[in-house]
């Protein structure tokens, strides 16, 4: 099963208005391609990301699609009051029943100064905040969240380390690992989640999703060309200087030192890039490695037409692979 992860990329030469228009196009294309869900990430203070308010964007995209599940990937809970999140996502679930996902994360989604501007971040209370959040949906809290009570969306825990894997397992809820930007702990985190899993009222057995960078084109050479900006983006983020996504031409012409070139190769080594058959094979290898129930595609491509094509080609290739 395939899904899509989005940050509403603000690409070079564009702006937030165009980025939000484009992500609407992408959401509709993902639905047409038969993808299961679309998640929006909460990041702050990044020139290349327009998904800083997931709940607002979820409402918009759910209203402009018909079937695909839409959710947060994720809401960074330490940035917010659990009560406010319950109200927001209770409202979304009431408006679009059975289509809303609430993916919860623990990271700040920003740098230190931006985190201070957000104003609340306290990861040390994460588990308590999570249980408080759930209590509003269940109606067991001392105060009423309305909407909220009785309107629990599909709840997920997100992670790029082993901490969230252990919490998700102990609570018996689905777990999504951010392999697209934190590949190092994938196997360990998934194993810890499965080992620590306790059946709950939500799940009888573990449910794992792995988010991976996947970029597809009609031929491998074109795929590598349009994947160039995503490769550079991984380097820029690791260097602490996230930027707007470059065009493929600008990425191809960008001068890297020998050290940066080696680092860029290392940081993007887990990207699945190629022709439809190559991408399907890469996804199959990842599923075999992790026994994941879902793969979430992260497809950061400069041109919206190329993004739509990548999603459609990947979905078609994966369907052919599974039927073969």
Mean of residue pLDDT values: 91
CATH superfamily: Luciferase-like domain
Separate helix tally: 13
Shape: globular
Q: Which structural class should the secondary elements be placed in?
A: alpha/beta
Say how many strands there are.
Answer: 9
The value of Rg in angstroms is 19 Å
What is the CATH topology? TIM Barrel
CATH architecture tag: Alpha-Beta Barrel
Q: Share of helix among residues?
A: 40-55%
Q: Biggest sheet: strands side by side, in what order?
A: 1-2-3-4-5-6-7-9
Largest sheet: 8 strands, parallel, barrel
Low-pLDDT parts are: none
What amount of the residues lies in strands? Answer: 15-25%
Distance between the termini: 16 Å
Instruction: Give the total of domains.
Output: 1
CATH class: Alpha Beta
What does the model show?
The chain is of the alpha/beta class. The protein has one domain: TIM Barrel (Alpha-Beta Barrel). Helices cover 47% and strands 15% of the residues. The chain contains 13 helices and nine strands. It has helices at 16-32, 54-63, 82-95, 112-118, 126-138, 162-171, 186-196, 220-226, 228-238, 248-253, 258-267, 276-290, 304-323; strands spanning 2-6, 37-40, 69-76, 100-105, 154-159, 175-178, 208-216, 272-274, 294-298. An eight-stranded parallel beta barrel has the order 1-2-3-4-5-6-7-9, surrounded by eight helices. The protein is globular, with a radius of gyration of 19 Å.
